[in-house]
Design a protein that fits this description.
Blueprint (H helix, E strand, L loop, with lengths): L3 E7 L7 H6 L2 E8 L2 E9 H11 L5 E5 L6 E10 L6 E8 L6 E10 L10 E5 L3 E6 L8 E4 L9 E3 L10 E2 L6 E7 L10 H42 L1
Parallel strand pairs: 1-4, 2-6, 7-10
Antiparallel strand pairs: 1-3, 2-3, 4-5, 5-6, 7-9, 8-13, 9-12, 11-13
């Protein structure tokens, strides 16, 4: 696999003034890592876009910082873009040592076609979409490809334990974790309630409620004149 390289220079422009850098075709960046103080950098935007397209966040990059004797081994840790214009705003580089193992989440990509999907009413159910790997930086794969052409029948599945990787790569996830499965589409039908019975029950309840209400109201009405007269006389006093 061809080595990816990019040049960078140290940056003095900070804060809101970085917008002037972008107008000049430069993208602000930060370099950080274990036992490394954060360094502000800037990269040519056109070259940086090419690297991002090829490397993503899972390929090792050789970062040549102006003034340094040797290039640094880095990964793209974070890529910030404008939500509306998709303009590249900022990137973070994470420095690693080639002789020191690291942990990284790598995306799982499905390839091929599953013969089991030819059956009517079947779908492909996804489980985990990333794999947590521990290995040397140069061993980190850009993505994990899983061939689904082995799924021949309904309920056929692929688990993490079925994925073949380089022996020098350790998988941190549960081997029994599901990656993909052929499932059958299920449609739930809710039972309809008998409308007539419900309406009848409501009618009876309504009648009883009305009757009770009238009875109570009548009783109250009969008692009101006495109480009402007392209250009225009290008020007049």
């Amino acid at each position: 696999m061809q080595e990816l390289k990019i040049k960078a220079s140290k940056r003095d422009v900070l804060g809101k003034r970085t917008r002037f850098l972008r107008r000049e075709g430069k993208t602000p960046a930060h370099l950080f890592g274990r036992s490394l103080e954060s360094i502000t950098l800037q990269c040519d935007t056109t070259e940086l876009k090419k690297i991002i397209a090829r490397a993503g966040t899972t390929r090792l990059i050789s970062l040549d910082v102006e003034g340094d004797k040797e290039p640094k081994n880095v990964f793209l840790r974070e890529i910030q873009k404008n939500a509306l214009t998709r303009e590249l705003l900022h990137v973070d580089f994470y420095q690693v040592r080639k002789d020191e193992k690291m942990t990284m989440d790598v995306p799982i990509v499905l390839i091929g076609e599953a013969p089991a999907l030819k059956g009517k009413g079947r779908i492909l159910s996804r489980g985990t979409t990333v794999l947590s790997l521990e290995c040397l930086p140069e061993k980190v794969p850009p993505q994990i490809e899983v061939d689904i052409s082995t799924l021949l029948e309904l309920d056929d599945s692929i688990f993490i334990k079925d994925i073949q990787l380089d022996p020098e790569i350790t998988v941190n996830d549960d081997p029994e974790l599901l990656v993909v499965k052929v499932s059958e589409i299920t449609i739930r039908v809710e039972e309809e309630r008998p409308v007539a019975a419900v309406e009848g029950a409501e009618g009876e309840e309504g009648a009883e409620g009305a009757e009770g209400a009238e009875g109570e109201e009548g009783a109250e009405g009969a008692a009101k004149p006495e109480g009402g007269a007392d209250k009225a006389s009290d008020k007049k006093e």
